[in-house]
């Protein structure tokens, strides 16, 4: 970073409306053109997550696809020690909770431009990054840090996609163990709830909020719909059709109305086709 | 009707008030969908009809009731009736046009009546004519006796379709008969072409007179139906109307001048001595009969009588003119209405007259019924065997029907009883007519077909109708074949027209030779020659090449063996005579010894050309036509999908191999023991398993030294710095597991259980069959027979589980989502489609071939991302399931042409394409689909394909194509079709059908050129590469099991494309030919380059430009171009940015 330090005195950080600082990024030192990163301290009103502490997190926009979390970590450690790096497709709150999955089971990431949340050790690093001059670009691929792209990367990816069946089986087994445990806990909880709703010795029932009844499965939307339909069908079955003269007359009327409607529809269709000159045979 | 109109107007007023919102909604959609320059036909939008209650339920009038009932009972719907009415309006002549015509006729008539007399000269002396006008006659032999002089015509009358009111657009021709005065002719002139020559001289005289007038636009000669004995003079009006109609001047003898009995088909009117210019021979007798000559002279005598007859008939039937017009349109779309031996408008009117006079149709029928009945008659009556006659009570001299049949192939006798109006028609043409009529009747009755379009709107050129087509190019050679076939007296009868003399004999020869292999043999009708009055009549050879079309019968066409009668059978001699030296005695497995001909052909694509071998052999043997004269366009396009070194193949054999290997695997899977749950179904889900993979996977043997090894499993891994290894397609197989209570009810858990199944299956296959396997969470790859099968375990309730979620109130809600849809697509719809199409391939041999060609075209034109493989297969399937007005394609080439025609001519905006797989949809389903489609058109995919399992969503085309891409596909398809048909039919063109497979690259903004070394499928490219790279393959037989796992599904090009689309998908579109394309074409999205206000969610690859207080973002183009290079390191050769095209 020697050359960039020299220029440091002469150039200023560039700040655009909206409070973002512009930072340049080059793939390698002999690249001709550069991407612009936009960074700002992470600031949200309602987020209490511990892994994005408000004072120490840097929010970075437009991270090119070849910057992996490791590369970003190294690149930004020039501003201070980096605790963690999180790259995401879109800005937003942190990951949804769920069982921890091994890398083989995670859905493939989109290899596009990312948004980064960089957590530093010290709050001072955030401001150091923000005051970095815009004409001293960060460099992704250097002598010390080779970043693989293209054919090299694909071969590496292909090689890494192999997993030994036994290892895979282990992962599966441990996950299923966890799953069974969770399942059991759930069942226990439900049992407990069910017990609570039983009459106690003196004949009292404890009424609680939450799912009613002892059914293990929650109500489903489909079941509701089905009952409604059943009712409707029942009603319909009771009706007599074409029994009275007026009913017969009505059916005939409906028929003519139907024909008329069809005629009108056809007419419109023809008008449409005519407008498109579709009747010229040649 | 008035009342109804008023209602319609009311409606129009009513709708705006409530439809206003809709309209406003429309505007942005339209703006988005139509490109600025091409908003042409897209303006109209279909709105669902809204009728108020009072309109629908008001009491009907009797008239309205009748009309509605008629529409309901006569037509599938009133739509067809209205469509026909509209069509008739389009082809009818306008009043203005009629006035023009009448005025021009008057001028010409006046001019004609002032023709000056001229002194009498010998017939063979044309010196009285000025040099600017030539005689429209081929003078062979040169001289004839007789005197001739010019005189004003005895009368000038209108004849033909114009006075009858059956004249239709386009090519409006008005016929004018000019009667040659009786003193110019002599009753003996019928002999030895004296009358035809005088007639030609008279026309030349008229032309000379008219040439001086300024009221005539242009003047040309032509021949009536290509008959050189009957020249006519074509006049057009001067000025800008010159192309709007033509006046055809016929010269006729005075009515009754010749006795009709002289033209009996068994009489001779051309003396052999005169024709062959020999000394009169001693032998008595009048020589061979000259039926064709007789009928052409007789034809001149009768036009007025015919007109009278037809007007009498048409005056009784009000719909006569409309019926004829419809029939003419039908004939014209089938290219049957023009040329030598055609079924022209005159015959159409005569046919209707015949049906009316024989009371097969009644006078009160509508035009629609007239058309239907006449087609029905044509389909059922065979005029080549049982001729028909319009003569009520012919006089005793008139020939009988058997006498006509002896002389002509098709017999339809005119009202006088003397003339066969179909004298020039070949039996093949009539068979074609009959075939067309019966095909039309079939689909007309089918309520699922758009009858109107197929019947009257779709043109059927020969190249798109016939499975194979061949052309005879140098027609001069037919002269020698006349000699070889001993046709001298027929040649005399045809007055030296050797092409039409030889044609019927060649046709019957081919018919005999091809026999059961073909359903139908058709030939093009040579167009009427036309030439200017200043030049000599063109020679017979000057006409364009004769084209013949074959409609193959799929089971027999490709058989290599022609089995004849037993050696001692008397018919054996006949067989030997037909096949000449190719016929040999062979002993068959059943013990019989018979005559047989064995043709060459190992692979399917060679066998498809057996008809070509037969035709070449027969023409050479019997008609003396060398192979060089013949141009066979049966499989020119197949080259682009041809592979194989020793035996060229278009993929049928390869696909079969894959399917066999798959069947074996499936059997083995079924038999596996030791799985916790049993297998309920094994289904293929890959195009190769339905014979439609463009280049089916080939069993490979690997050279291990070419690869690196992965450490743990010793699997092969591509080596850096070497060319990319050969691409191995994984063939997807779905393996359904039995449902059980043990399956968890959780998405992640199901995924893990599936993995466990993959591992277990892999272990078992390795243990029992020694297949190398590689289990993954998503699939299990099995290396077998040099192929890779990718087995995916599926659990039928998984999509359901993915859809379920519990909301805050604890209610279980089912919501559709993309993940579930994708899974359903992969595990249910794709296997189903694969098995259904596999079944279709069993019914139609060349289904796979057509799919392969169509997809090759789509790929090479860079459309394979937009029209996906499954969509393309479905589109091709529709060509087979609903071929109307054609028959199912019988060769890949004709299939490709129809595919292109479907893409370019189908009205995607207003119609759903219904693919009736397995014939599961009934007529009511069609209307239902159509109505659903109409009701929610705007929200449905632009290219809408409905199948029995998917009636109103069009699953396969949901993602792509977009409106703009479809527009481009339609445009390119139309252009390709035009170009390809020209290439195939026109011998003058530079012969290179690959032209249609080379995409125009000038439309794109950036071209990324790839390094051919890293393109694994390079050898599949349209233009085969000059250099080849070693890709780690070895020759030799393939081991069935064992060995190290190869590099599977590793294609740098598609990996690169995926990365590019992920990163820059919002900014640009990326196109590439998946079959060995070495260039990636990039098109910027115009909208991406409009400066946008700064937004944290839309910053990908953009930079900020600050103007004052505003921060706008624009794409960082230089950096993006650099990224193209960075991300494709090792794969790309160069990035060519065409900055001059960029407009931002």
Automatic annotation (TrEMBL), chain A:
A Pfam family: RRP7
One GO BP annotation of this record: ribosomal small subunit assembly
InterPro entries attached to this UniProt entry: Nucleotide-bd_a/b_plait_sf, RBD_domain_sf, RRM_dom, RRP7, RRP7_C, Rrp7A_RRM
An annotated GO cellular component: CURI complex
Superkingdom classification of source: Eukaryota
Domain RRM: 56-154
Record field: compositional bias (Basic and acidic residues): 180-194, 218-231
One MF term in the entry's GO annotations: RNA binding
Region called Disordered, residue ranges: 180-234
Keywords: RNA-binding
Keyword Phosphoprotein: no
PROSITE patterns: RRM (PS50102)
Family, similarity comment: Belongs to the RRP7 family.
Identification of the protein by name: RRM domain-containing protein
Species name: Zoarces viviparus (Viviparous eelpout)
From TrEMBL, chain B:
Domain Nrap protein: 174-315, 319-458, 464-623, 638-842, 844-998, 1001-1135
Subcellular location per the Swiss-Prot or TrEMBL entry: Chromosome; Nucleus, Nucleolus
Name assigned to this protein: Nucleolar protein 6
InterPro entries: NOL6/Upt22 (IPR005554), Nrap_D1 (IPR035082), Nrap_D2 (IPR035367), Nrap_D3 (IPR035368), Nrap_D4 (IPR035369), Nrap_D5 (IPR035370), Nrap_D6 (IPR035371)
ATP-binding is among the record's keywords: no
Keywords carried by this UniProt record: Chromosome, Nucleus, RNA-binding
GO MF annotation terms: RNA binding
Function: Part of the small subunit (SSU) processome, first precursor of the small eukaryotic ribosomal subunit. During the assembly of the SSU processome in the nucleolus, many ribosome biogenesis factors, an RNA chaperone and ribosomal proteins associate with the nascent pre-rRNA and work in concert to generate RNA folding, modifications, rearrangements and cleavage as well as targeted degradation of pre-ribosomal RNA by the RNA exosome.
Region of interest (Disordered), residue spans: 1-45
Recorded superkingdom: Eukaryota
GO biological process: rRNA processing; tRNA export from nucleus
GO cellular component terms listed in the entry, alphabetical order: chromosome; CURI complex; small-subunit processome; UTP-C complex
Primary localization: nucleus
PANTHER family: NUCLEOLAR PROTEIN 6, NUCLEOLAR RNA-ASSOCIATED PROTEIN
UniProt similarity note: Belongs to the NRAP family.
């Amino acid at each position: 970073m020697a050359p960039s330090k020299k220029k440091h005195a002469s150039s200023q950080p560039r700040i655009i409306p909206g409070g973002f600082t512009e930072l340049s990024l080059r793939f390698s030192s002999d690249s001709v053109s550069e991407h612009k990163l936009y960074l700002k301290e992470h600031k949200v009103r309602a987020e209490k997550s511990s892994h994005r502490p408000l004072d120490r997190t840097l929010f970075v926009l437009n991270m090119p696809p070849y910057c992996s979390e490791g590369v970003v970590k190294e690149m930004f450690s020039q501003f201070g020690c980096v605790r963690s790096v999180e790259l995401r497709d879109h800005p937003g709150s942190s990951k949804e909770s769920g069982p921890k999955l091994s890398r083989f089971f995670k859905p493939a990431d989109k290899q596009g431009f990312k948004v980064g949340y960089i957590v530093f050790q010290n709050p001072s690093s955030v401001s150091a990054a923000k005051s970095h001059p815009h004409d001293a670009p960060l460099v992704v691929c250097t002598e010390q840090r080779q970043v693989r792209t293209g054919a090299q990367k694909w071969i590496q990816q292909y090689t890494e996609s192999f997993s030994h069946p036994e290892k895979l089986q282990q992962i599966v087994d441990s996950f299923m163990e966890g799953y069974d445990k969770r399942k059991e806990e759930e069942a226990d909880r439900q049992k407990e709830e069910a017990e609570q709703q039983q009459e106690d010795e003196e004949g009292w029932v404890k009424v609680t909020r939450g799912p009613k009844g002892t059914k293990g499965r929650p109500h489903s939307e489909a079941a509701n719909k089905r009952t409604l339909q059943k009712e409707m069908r029942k009603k319909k079955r009771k009706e007599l059709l074409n029994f009275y003269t007026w009913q017969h007359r009505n059916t005939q009327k409906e028929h003519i109305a139907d024909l008329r409607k069809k005629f009108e529809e056809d007419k419109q269709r023809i008008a449409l086709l005519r407008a498109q000159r579709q009747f010229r045979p040649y | 009707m008035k009342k109804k109109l008023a209602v319609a107007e009311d409606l129009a007023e009513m709708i705006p008030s409530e439809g206003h919102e809709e309209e406003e909604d429309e505007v942005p959609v339209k703006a988005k969908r139509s490109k600025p320059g091409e908003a042409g036909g897209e303006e109209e939008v279909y709105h669902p009809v809204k009728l108020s209650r009072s309109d629908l339920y008001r009491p009907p009038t009797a008239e309205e009731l009748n009309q509605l009932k008629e529409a309901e009972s006569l037509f599938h719907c009133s739509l067809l009736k209205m469509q026909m009415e509209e069509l008739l309006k389009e082809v009818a002549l306008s009043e203005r046009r009629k006035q023009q015509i009448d005025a021009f006729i008057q001028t010409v008539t006046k001019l004609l009546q002032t023709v000056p007399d001229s002194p009498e000269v010998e017939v063979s002396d044309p010196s009285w004519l000025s040099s600017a006008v030539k005689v429209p006659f081929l003078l062979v032999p040169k001289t004839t006796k007789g005197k001739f002089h010019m005189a004003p015509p005895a009368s000038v009358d209108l004849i033909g379709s114009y006075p009858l009111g059956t004249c239709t657009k386009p090519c409006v021709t008005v016929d004018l008969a000019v009667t040659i005065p009786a003193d110019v002719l002599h009753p003996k002139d019928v002999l030895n072409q004296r009358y035809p020559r005088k007639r030609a001289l008279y026309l030349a005289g008229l032309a000379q007179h008219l040439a001086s007038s300024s009221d005539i636009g242009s003047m040309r000669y032509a021949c009536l139906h290509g008959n050189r004995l009957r020249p006519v003079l074509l006049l057009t009006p001067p000025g800008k109307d010159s192309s709007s109609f033509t006046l055809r001047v016929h010269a006729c003898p005075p009515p009754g001048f010749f006795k009709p009995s002289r033209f009996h088909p068994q009489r001779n009117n051309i003396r052999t001595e005169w024709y062959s210019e020999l000394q009169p021979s001693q032998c008595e007798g009048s020589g061979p009969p000259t039926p064709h000559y007789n009928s052409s002279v007789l034809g001149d005598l009768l036009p007025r009588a015919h007109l009278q007859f037809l007007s009498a008939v048409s005056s009784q039937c009000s719909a006569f003119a409309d019926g004829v017009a419809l029939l003419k349109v039908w004939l014209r779309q089938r290219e049957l209405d023009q040329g030598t031996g055609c079924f022209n408008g005159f015959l159409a009117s005569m046919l209707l007259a015949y049906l009316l006079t024989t009371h097969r149709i009644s006078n009160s029928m509508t035009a629609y019924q007239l058309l239907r009945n006449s087609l029905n008659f044509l389909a059922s009556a065979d005029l080549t065997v049982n001729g028909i006659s319009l003569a009520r009570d012919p006089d005793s001299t008139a020939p009988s029907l058997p006498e006509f049949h002896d002389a002509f192939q098709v017999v339809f006798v005119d009202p006088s009883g003397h003339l066969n109006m179909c004298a020039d028609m070949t039996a093949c043409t009539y068979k074609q007519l009959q075939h067309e009529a019966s095909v039309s009747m079939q689909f007309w009755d089918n309520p699922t077909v758009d009858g109107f379009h197929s019947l009257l709107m779709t043109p059927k050129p020969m190249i798109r109708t016939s499975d194979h087509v061949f052309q005879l190019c140098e027609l001069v050679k037919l002269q020698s074949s006349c000699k070889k076939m001993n046709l001298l007296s027929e040649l005399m009868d045809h007055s030296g027209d050797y092409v039409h003399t030889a044609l019927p004999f060649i046709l019957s020869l081919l018919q005999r030779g091809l026999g059961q292999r073909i359903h139908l043999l058709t030939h093009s009708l040579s167009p009427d020659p036309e030439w200017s009055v200043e030049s000599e009549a063109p020679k017979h050879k000057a006409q364009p090449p004769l084209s013949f079309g074959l409609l193959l019968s799929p089971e027999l066409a490709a058989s290599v063996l022609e089995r004849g009668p037993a050696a001692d059978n008397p018919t054996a001699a006949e067989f030997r005579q037909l096949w000449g030296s190719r016929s040999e005695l062979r002993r068959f497995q059943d013990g019989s010894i018979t005559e047989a001909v064995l043709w060459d052909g190992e692979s399917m694509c060679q066998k498809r050309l057996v008809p070509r071998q037969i035709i070449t052999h027969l023409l050479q043997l019997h008609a003396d036509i060398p192979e060089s004269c013949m141009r066979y366009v049966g499989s020119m396009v197949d080259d682009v999908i041809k592979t194989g070194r020793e035996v060229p193949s278009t993929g049928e054999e390869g696909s079969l191999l894959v399917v066999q290997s798959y069947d074996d695997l499936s059997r083995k899977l079924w038999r596996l023991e030791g799985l916790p749950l049993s297998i309920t179904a094994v289904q293929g889900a890959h195009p190769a398993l339905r014979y439609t993979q463009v280049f089916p996977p080939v069993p490979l043997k690997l050279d291990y030294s070419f690869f690196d090894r992965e450490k743990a499993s010793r699997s092969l891994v591509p080596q850096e710095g070497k060319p990319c290894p050969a691409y191995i397609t994984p063939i997807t197989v779905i393996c359904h597991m039995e449902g059980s209570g043990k399956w968890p009810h959780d998405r992640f858990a199901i995924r893990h259980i599936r993995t466990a199944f993959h591992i277990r299956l892999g272990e078992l296959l390795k243990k029992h069959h020694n297949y190398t396997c590689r289990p993954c969470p998503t699939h299990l790859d099995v290396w077998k027979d040099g192929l890779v099968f990718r087995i995916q375990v599926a659990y039928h309730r998984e999509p359901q589980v993915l859809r379920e979620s519990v909301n805050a109130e604890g209610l279980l809600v089912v919501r559709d989502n993309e993940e579930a849809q994708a899974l359903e697509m992969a595990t249910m719809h794709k296997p189903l489609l694969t098995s259904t199409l596999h079944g279709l391939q069993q019914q139609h041999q060349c289904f796979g071939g057509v799919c392969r060609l169509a997809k090759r075209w789509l790929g090479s034109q860079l459309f394979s991302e937009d029209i996906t493989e499954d969509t393309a297969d479905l589109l091709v399937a529709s060509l087979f399931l609903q071929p109307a007005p054609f028959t199912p394609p019988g060769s890949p080439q004709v299939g490709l042409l129809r595919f292109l025609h479907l893409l370019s001519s189908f009205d995607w905006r207003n119609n759903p394409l219904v693919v009736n797989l397995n014939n599961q949809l009934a007529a009511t389903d069609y209307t239902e689909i159509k109505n659903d489609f109409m009701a929610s058109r705007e929200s449905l995919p632009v290219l809408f394909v409905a199948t029995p399992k998917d009636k109103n969503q069009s699953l396969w085309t949901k993602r792509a194509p977009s409106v703009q891409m479809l527009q481009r596909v339609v445009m390119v398809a139309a252009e390709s079709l035009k170009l390809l048909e020209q290439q195939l039919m026109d011998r003058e063109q530079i012969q290179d059908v690959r032209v249609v497979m080379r995409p125009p690259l000038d439309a794109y903004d950036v071209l990324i050129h790839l390094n051919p070394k890293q393109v694994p499928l390079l050898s599949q490219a349209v233009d085969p590469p000059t250099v080849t790279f070693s890709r780690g393959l070895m020759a030799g037989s393939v081991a069935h099991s064992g060995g190290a796992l190869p590099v599977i599904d590793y294609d740098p090009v598609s990996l690169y494309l995926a990365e590019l689309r992920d990163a820059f998908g919002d900014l640009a579109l990326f196109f590439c030919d998946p079959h060995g394309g070495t260039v990636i074409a990039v098109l910027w999205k115009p909208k991406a380059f409009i400066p946008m206000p700064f937004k944290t969610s839309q910053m990908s690859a953009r930079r900020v430009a600050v103007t004052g207080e505003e921060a706008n973002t624009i794409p960082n183009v230089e950096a993006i171009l650099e990224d193209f290079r960075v991300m494709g390191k090792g794969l790309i050769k160069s990035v060519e940015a065409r900055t001059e095209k960029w407009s931002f």
